[in-house]
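B., you asked whether I could sanity-check this one before it goes into the benchmark set. Here's the sequence:
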Amino acid sequence: MNIGPYALANNLFVAPMAGVTDRPFRQLSKKLGAGYAVSEMVTSRRDLWDSLKTSRRANHEGEDAPIAVQIAGTDAQMMADAAAYNIARGAQIIDINMGCPAKKVCNKWAGSALMQDETLALQIVSAVVAACAPHNVPVTLKMRTGWCQAEKNALTIARAAESAGVQMITVHGRTREQGYKGTAEYDTIAAVKAALRIPVVANGDISSPERARDVLAYTGADAVMIGRAAQGRPWIFREVAHFLATGTHLAPPLVAEVERLLVDHLRDHYTLYGEFTGVRTARKHIGWYVKTLPGGEAFRARMNLLEDCEAQLKAVSGFFQELGEHMDRIPASAESTGDENGPATKNSYKNEEEAAA
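And here's what the prediction gave me:
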């Protein structure tokens, strides 16, 4: 599939997740089979563009094209300016955040709160599209099904956004009211796909190859976006790709490969964040990798006390080398074999996330 002039490697996308989908994580996910990755959201507030946090989020050094940056805000002109700012820093696709349910975002009427004001939402979309058009930069939109169960207006906003020039829409199958609780529903996504001519991406509760297959079939979506299921398991993209292509499961990764992937990820992470911040922000990534492994929780508790990069790397390597003495491959998770919730059915979709923006 294509987004504007960019041909994507496949239809498996990495969700934009605050504090997670930085450049090292995006590059690792692409290396392991993701066809597309969107950055963490970048604020539209000009006074914060020179902050360390924003500069890290806008770092695309060595990143493969297309480089997609998600922007968040509540003012149409500020969002247009933010789009131009990020294009100047290398963004090739601009994604508008209308899906983040976090209170600190919604309390400022950004993120999914914009879905309560359709007029403002469309003003922002139109302004961003106009700012990107001279640069031939496509604009995409990520949103939820609505603000609450009684106000599901994703279809209305999607139609208006398409008319305004948005070239792809991602829908997370939950309302803002749900946050990340409960289960995703896919009927709204199916309705959006049926109504639009542009590509539509399904997001929410996609944690296994079977679920990806069934969501694509049920919604008719052009792609699926995976978030939380990729945390500590970035090889999920190649697992899904293999299953969609062959109908069979790829063997879990070798313990030695996971050690190498994580060590390389950590080194890249330290390079971006520096030692003090890097060793601390890396803890969550390490925790996700070892969470379900034998001895993982005890190791995580010890690892969280380490405060320098080399000690952290040594501990990680030691953990996986010891694990490799007892098993060749990482144990297959329930999600990776499709066993977590049983086979997906039409009814289960209605009653069934990603920490995605």
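One thing to flag: Strands lie at 2-3, 6-7, 12-14, 36-43, 68-72, 93-98, 139-146, 168-175, 200-203, 223-226. Otherwise nothing jumped out at me.
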